[in-house]
Give the backbone structure.
Amino acid sequence: EETVTVADFSGHGGSKTYKISAEGADPPTVALHSRCEEVTSDPISEPRMQAAARLLADAGLAPCRLAEGGDWFIEPWEGDGALGTPFVLTAGSASLEELGRLLARIHATPIGWYDSWREKLCERIPMLREAQLGSHIWWYTARPKLVPEDLTEEGLYSWVTEDFFAPMSAAAARVVTVHGDFHPGNMVRARQEVRVIDFEFTCVTHAVQDFAWAFFAYLKDPAQKRKFTQA
């Protein structure tokens, strides 16, 4: 009789993640992700995340999906779990240079995968056609509730077209595939390499999106930021 063990490794985003192990299975341990209703009820969000997962898995930057359904998917369980929390990188889990190189590889992936999803979002909210390709607004479209329904047409236009968020440097202004939630809680180590998981906010926008989140959340010291960006 085979023994199956289940452990809850869920984060704080509303969805659930379970580590499931079974002796004799191949692979012996998998991650079962159950998506929250807000995401699965949206006809754009979940398929867009699936497309992002395939893109980054094909590039060797994320685990491959073994199976998936309407509100769930299964991946191999990589390493010993996440490299930390959104605000803390576990000591010794990875170097800042390693994380910088990982982000550079993510930003080097093709951006054309997002074109069809951007168009679907524009069909839902026509005002989005006024947004630049690198606009801050694309990150907010990952979840419908992040775009306030009570905004007037004038208010929505101002939010979509405002450019005071625009980065000042050429490196930060590059239009790239961004992970959108690049923190240690969404990183795992697999076969000596660090990979990313959780593509809820993955989209195409200015590269600064990933740098800004890293600097806000877990890279507080100027020396840390310098090591990360130089890599």
